[in-house]
Amino acid sequence: MRNNFEIDMSNFKMNKFTKGLITVGVSAVVLLSGFAMSTTKINPGHAGIVYNVSGGLEEITLSQGWHIVALGKALENIQFQLKPYG
């Protein structure tokens, strides 16, 4: 006698469309999460200093706005202010 909670998977077959849809969905989730993890925002009055894990500090600083920082690099968000002389 079969348990009522068992599911018979012997006749379950996925067609090419379903497999393709699952592949596209998983790929989209991986790409969007990778993009979200590597995107950063520099606020006005701040500068971004990029540190490359294998090579040290980068010569270029990032200005305000949205930037993509590659894997293997870290970003330090530094606040700066111009003060009047005198």
Offer a concise description of the structure.
The protein is of the alpha+beta class.
Features:
86 residues, alpha+beta, 5 strands
Structure characterization notes:
The protein is of the alpha+beta class and 86 residues long. The chain has one domain (16-79). Helix content is 27%, strand content 34%. The chain is built from 1 helix and 5 strands, in the order H-E-E-E-E-E. The protein has one helix spanning 16-38; strands at 39-42, 46-52, 56-62, 65-68, 73-79. The strands form 2 sheets. It has a 3-stranded antiparallel sheet, with no helix packed on it. Strands 1-4 form a two-stranded antiparallel sheet. The longest helix has 23 residues, at 16-38. It is rod-shaped and about 85 Å long. The protein starts with 15 loop residues before the first helix and ends in a 7-residue tail after the last strand. The model has no long low-confidence stretch (mean pLDDT 84).
